Amino acid sequence: MGTILKNGKLLVNGEIVALDILVAGNKIVKIAPQIEGADYKIVDVSGKLVTPGFIDMHVHLREPGFEAKETIATGTASAARGGFTTVACMPNTRPVIDTPATVELILQKAKEEGSVRVLPMGAISVRELGKELTDMAALKEAGVVALSDDGVGVQSSKMMKDAMHIAVELGLPIVAHCEDDSLIEGGCVHEGVFSEKQGLKGIPSEAETIHIGRDIILAEATGAHYHICHISTADGVRLVRDAKQRGVKVTAEVCPHHLILCDEDIPGDDANYKMNPPLRSQRDRDALVAGLKDGTIDMVVTDHAPHTAEEKQRGMALAPFGIVGLETAFPLMYTKFVKTGAFTLQEVVDRMTKVPADVFNLPYGTIEEGAIADITVIDLETEKEVDPQTFASKGHNTPFTGWKLAGWPVLTMVDGVIAWQADDLNGKGEVH
Ligand code: DOR
Ligand code: ZN
Ligand code: ZN
C-alpha cells in the first residue's frame, strides 16, 4: 500500500515539471512522469504546486499553561493548514520548557494529538528569568533541538557567553530573542516618527541591535552557532551581513509581517498590529527584504503567537505582543514577493524548507527519492480573502484580515500520512 500524488508541479532547479510521487511508509519511494499501480491510493494534484513540507523554526504552541490561547492540537492543526510539516515550539510556556519532564510532556502530547511534527526548544535560563542556566545537557537528552529564552532577551552578557560555551559542547544552536530591557520601558510600537505622532511609547531599534552586536562578538569568541530570532532592523541586517562575511557562525530568521508591513501601516489603536519586535520603519522593512534576498537572512518563520480576543481587545498599550502566522505565511510570501517578481518561487520555497533544515541539521525539507515524505500541495491560482474565523488556530489575532491572497495550501503530508487536506480537493472527486 502507498499513495501516489499524481501530476503535481514540482520545482526542479527552478523549473516547474509535472511529475508523480509515490509514497510508501514514511518515505518518498519514486518520482517519475507516470507512476501506475492498482494498489495505491491516488490523489490527483494536477495543476497544483508540490513542495517539501514547510518548516517553521519559531512557533508558540502555548501548551502547557496557556491553553486558552492555543494547544498543541490546535496549533499543529493550524500548521498543517498552513502547509507546515515541522514546527519548532518556543519554551515560554507554563511551566517553561526548562526540564526534561516538560520536553517529554510536549513530545508525548504532540505524538498523541498533533497533526505535524513538533520540535521543542529548551530554555537557556530557568523559568526564562535570566538568573540561572538550565541543565542543557539534560534538555538535549530529552530531545530539544535548540536553546532559547524567546519572549525575553538574555540580559547578562556573562550568562549568554556561558550558555554559548555549553551549547558548543552539546552541538546545539543558541536561538536568541534580541532585546535589551534597559532600552524598552513599556514601549508598544517602534520608536520613531510614528510613535511620536500617535503619542505611543516606542521600542528603539537599538534594543535589538545591541544584543545582535554583543552576541555576534560572543559567538565569535566561543564558536557557537548563534541564530537570531525575528530580525527587524536595518542595522541588525548590516551586523549579520558583516559577521557572515567574516565567517562567524551566525544565522537569522525573519517574519512575513516584518517584510510586508511597517509602522506607518498601523491604522490606529489596533493590537492586531502589536508584536515584539514591532513593525519598524519603511527603511528597516526594505533592508529585511534585501537581506532575505541576498542570503544574509537565511529563513522565513512565523513567530506564530496566538492570544485570546479578550486580550487583544485591550488596545495597543495594554494588549500582549504577538500575532498568529501559520495559516497566512505562504500565501503572504507568494502574493507579495513571488507574484510581484521580487523573489522567485524557488527562493521563497527554499527559505521555508531546505534552508531551515540545513541550518538546524534536520532530515527534512527536500523532495527526492529516499527522503522522508513531508510534502505540501499548494493551489497557486485561487485568490481568497484572509478570514481568521476560518483558522484552525484558536488565535484570530492577525493584521491581514480581508487581504486577498493566492498560494493557499490544499494538502499537507507528514511522515507519509496526509495530515490535512482541503475540502475542495475532495469535492472535485480527485481522491480515490
Ligand atoms: O510578539 C511576540 N510574541 N514576541 C515575542 O517575543 C513573544 C511572543 C509571545 O510569546 O506572545
Ligand atoms: Zn521573540
Ligand atoms: Zn516568539
TrEMBL record:
Keyword Transmembrane: no
Residue numbers binding substrate: 60-62, 92, 276, 307, 321-322
Glycoprotein recorded as keyword: no
Cofactor, how bound (note): Binds 2 Zn(2+) ions per subunit.
Cross-referenced Gene3D superfamilies: Metal-dependent hydrolases, Urease, subunit C, domain 1
Named cofactor requirement(s): Zn(2+)
Pathway: Pyrimidine metabolism; UMP biosynthesis via de novo pathway; (S)-dihydroorotate from bicarbonate: step 3/3
Lineage: superkingdom: Bacteria
Catalytic residue list: 303
Pfam families attached to this UniProt entry: DHOase
Binding positions (Zn(2+) 2): 150, 177, 230
One cellular component term from this protein's GO annotations in UniProt: cytoplasm
GO biological process assignments: 'de novo' UMP biosynthetic process; purine nucleobase catabolic process
Catalytic activity entry: (S)-dihydroorotate + H2O = N-carbamoyl-L-aspartate + H(+)
One of the record's GO molecular function terms: dihydroorotase activity
Enzyme Commission number: 3.5.2.3
Keywords: Hydrolase, Metal-binding, Pyrimidine biosynthesis, Zinc
Annotated binding of Zn(2+) 1, by residue: 58, 60, 150, 303
InterPro entries in alphabetical order: DHOase (IPR004722), DHOase/Allantoinase_Hydrolase (IPR050138), DHOase_cat (IPR024403), Dihydroorotase_CS (IPR002195), Metal-dep_hydrolase_composite (IPR011059), Metal_Hydrolase (IPR032466)
Domain Dihydroorotase catalytic: residue ranges: 47-234
Similarity-based family: Belongs to the metallo-dependent hydrolases superfamily. DHOase family. Class I DHOase subfamily.
Role played: Catalyzes the reversible cyclization of carbamoyl aspartate to dihydroorotate.
Name listed for the protein in its UniProt record: Dihydroorotase
